[in-house]
Amino acid sequence: MPNKISAVIVTYHPELKKLKEQVDRLVKQVQYVVIVDNNSANANEIKQVFSEASYAGVVNLYYNGENKGLGYAQNKGISIAVNLGVLYVLLLDDDSLIEENFVGNLISEYNHLTNNGKKVGAIGPVYYNEETGEKYPITKYIGPLIDRRHPENEAVEATFLIASGCLIPVEVLNNVGLMNEDFFIDYIDVEWSFRAISKGYRLYATPKAQMNHIIGERRANVFGRKISIHSPLRKYYLFRNSIFMIKCPYISFGYKVREIIFNFLRFITYMILTDDKKRYIRYAFLGYKDGFVGKKGRCTYNF
């Protein structure tokens, strides 16, 4: 392996068969795999699976005694990977399955871009939904408008990258900083992306690396546009952290304008689509409120 790379996987009640398949694919492409478990109900089973001799010296396990959020777990995994002496980290969800030569293609494209004078902060794949055949566009903001890009051969610049499948040099993390732990979940990758851009870095997605990824619990078609549907609790984090993004000084003005407009549209849309309107309204309202008053971390409400 020409480059020292560690995958960082955050697990939360993972499907063990899929997690093992994920790690088995990764060990052929990276030097280390760091698994940070966020207090899963099957944590003992995870430990048993990866205590096999074949994973010794490659798979590193860390267990959080409580779920402190995605950002905290990602940062813990990154810190462990950095202490192993790697030069790059590959962030992954616990159900993300990479394809053959996935990591090699990311590194190759990263080197191509940097050799051509690009200051690359991170590079990610193109995502698709295996169940629906949908291929997600790469998002580039132009003011409040979106240029949705579908790259065919060459890497394209993006305003933000989804964390799962994203390859980040350790040097960039040292300059930009780690993930925002205050958000707990949602918008973490978007906030980090804008922070990297504010430091002069550029983000890219390459079609030479592709990955199956499902956004939200399900997808719905609204006026010809696919949108992600999340649980009422997740809506708390989405609405709250959206307010944090609007208040953040290094987020672009155009993105803030779009968030303000779409927050209203999202509320109405989900109100129509959700089967649990009462819980949805309560979590959405409290998310907005806590965003304005600056309450961060884990949601303390339970409806």
Describe the structure.
A hairpin with a 2-residue loop joins strand 6 (138-142) and strand 7 (145-149). It is globular and about 50 Å long. Helix 7 (232-247) runs parallel beside helix 9 (277-293). The chain contains nine helices and twelve strands. The strands form four sheets. The chain has a five-stranded mixed beta sheet, with helices on both faces. It has a three-stranded mixed beta sheet with strand order 5-10-8. The chain is α/β, with parallel strands linked by helices. The model has no long low-confidence stretch (mean pLDDT 91).
The low-pLDDT segments are: none
Number of strands: 12
Strand content: 15-25%
Shape type: globular
Binned, the helix content reads: 25-40%
For the report, how would you describe the main beta sheet? 5 strands, mixed
Structure annotation, total helices: 9
Main β-sheet, spatial strand arrangement? 3-2-1-4-9
Q: Which secondary-structure class do the elements indicate?
A: alpha/beta
Distance between the termini: 49 Å
Can you describe this structure in just a few lines?
The chain is α/β, with parallel strands linked by helices and 303 residues long. The chain contains 9 helices and 12 strands.
Record keyword descriptors for this entry:
39% helix; single chain; 9 helices; 303 residues; three-stranded mixed sheet
Helix and strand arrangement:
Layout: E1 5-11, H1 16-26, E2 32-37, H2 43-49, E3 59-63, H3 70-83, E4 88-93, H4 102-115, E5 120-128, E6 138-142, E7 145-149, E8 156-158, E9 166-169, H5 170-176, H6 188-198, E10 202-212, E11 218-222, E12 225-229, H7 232-247, H8 253-273, H9 277-293
Parallel strand pairs: 1-2, 1-4, 2-3, 5-10
Antiparallel strand pairs: 4-9, 6-7, 8-10, 11-12
Helix pairs in contact: 7-8, 7-9, 8-9
